[in-house]
Amino acid sequence: MAPAEEDTPPSQVNSGMVKLADEAKEDCEKVAIITGANSGIGFEATKLLCAAGYHVVLACRRLEAADKAASDVKLLTPDAKTSVVNVSMNIHVVLVHIHIIS
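Now predict its structure.
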């Protein structure tokens, strides 16, 4: 029978938590959210991050332009992982720590 948590020495509890955190990190992919990703520096950043293995969320006001940018990136980096999000001027986007677990 496993000892109750209160009977477990703190060093063992902490090492177990660190191990769980490390395993969770391995299961998570790197995610970048780029505003204005369909042109200019946003598009350049999108290309670089996709090539580096990031899952890039293209956050743009014009959905058609974002879809085209995602297609263009996949021509350069066929295994690129992208998502498109439509953000308009009247929507406030608040970003919180996001993990995508595959």
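Residues 29-97 form a domain with the Rossmann fold fold (CATH 3.40.50.720).
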